[in-house]
Amino acid sequence: MIRNPASAAHFSLIFRISAVIRKTFAGHLTFTLLLRSLWADCIPDGWRI
User: Fold this and answer.
1) Least C-beta-crowded within 10 Å: which of 13, 16, 32, 44?
2) C-alpha–C-alpha distance, residues 22 and 39, integer Å
3) 43: exposed, middle or buried (C-beta count within 10 Å: 0-12, 13-18, 19+)?
């Protein structure tokens, strides 16, 4: 257990920030995959990346 309240608050802050980063990274990854699938549907086979 963390006894120092300051370090506990610091830890919770880091945890919150990492959770936000993970959420935004997952959202970015999903958006990229969605965009790529839409791109693949719209563009003919010869122009596919």
Assistant:
1) 44
2) 25
3) exposed
Tell me the pLDDT tens digit for each residue of 21-44: 888 888 888 888 888 888 777 766
3-state secondary structure at position 33? helix
In one letter, which amino acid is 31?
A: F
Which residue matches tokens 């969605």?
Answer: 34
Q: The tokens of 40 are what?
A: 């693949």
pTM for this predicted structure: 0.44
Q: 26-31, long-range: CB within 8 Å, 24+ apart, which pairs?
A: none
Name the residue with tokens 């990346």. Answer: 49
How many residues make up the chain in this entry? 49
